[in-house]
Every structure is written in structure tokens, then in C-alpha cells.
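Per reviewer request, we include the raw input and output of the structure prediction for the construct analysed in the revised manuscript.
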Amino acid sequence: MFTYSLDEQSYLKMLEPEDASELFLLTWNSMERLKKWLPLIGNNRRQEDTEAFIKSSLLQLSENNGFQAGIWHQDKIGGVIGFHFVNWHNRTTSIGYWIGDGFEGKGLMTKACRAMVQHAFETWQLNRVEIRAAEENKKSRALPEKLGFTQEGKIRQAELLQGEYVDHIVYGLLLEDWKKQKHQNN
């Protein structure tokens, strides 16, 4: 199955059924922190729920509509990153991600997101990658800002979190922006 090296100790790997136990434990142990911004993660109450998520991500892959990858560090799963969908007609996608307790502050998400953006632009030849985050979710918003995404606007009351509607900040990165960044870094 697909793997992509991020550094000497870290890599992305397509989620597989045999990852369910370890991913469930990471999710469960990170639940208190994650559920503030990812309320659906609270539905992950049994290992079977994680198995169903992995099965749906494999279906997503088979339908050529994106994929979900585990973020591995020192051979332990530390989080998940994936494409929500791929709009092949408009050549766009969006990325979602989360990192488990004990894996924050290692630069893993930055490296993983950069790899996913590279895949979207260089392998799939897409034109636009989008990331949305709740306005108050400063850590999630820091990632697209660090990677050179443009803050494009706000979607008011975009999501119901903890019984209250929150606004989303929309970030976009275009292929032409990506090429300029790569040229400047070389």
C-alpha cells in the first residue's frame, strides 16, 4: 500500500484495516482535545467505528475521490490527513487533518500537509487546494498560513460545534502560487 516518506522517522501511509486498533486507541486517547473542533470524532466509540472509517476511506480511494492517510512517526500512528473529495471537473480539492495527543509540536502536520499539497498539484495536476478551519481554532489555522495559503474569506455559521454555530475561515492555494513558492525555494 502507498507510503510516502516525510523524514527519517515519519511517513504517510494509506489507512488499512490492520491499522484500526492503533488508530482507535490514538483517537480514543485524544478524544477530549479533538472533540472540541471535530465533533464527529465523538462517534468513534468502538474499534468497529474506526474500522468503518477505514473501510469508507478505501471506498473513497477506489472511487478516485481522494484518500485518507495515517501520519506515522517512529512506527506509531500519530494522526490522519486526507482529501475530503476531488472535483475533477474544476480540478479542486480540500484537505482535512488532525494530530493525536503526544504527536503535536514535531512538525509532522506541516510536513504531511505539504506532501498532500504536492500530490494534489504535481501528481493529480489540480489547480486549487482549500483548507477550512473554525475561526477560533488557531492551531488548525496556523498550518495553511505557514504553508503560504491565502486567507480568502469567512463563511458565517458554517458548522455546529458543541451546540453553537462557528464561522469558518477559508484558505486557498492555487497551482500558480505553488509554482512560485517552489521557484523561490530553489
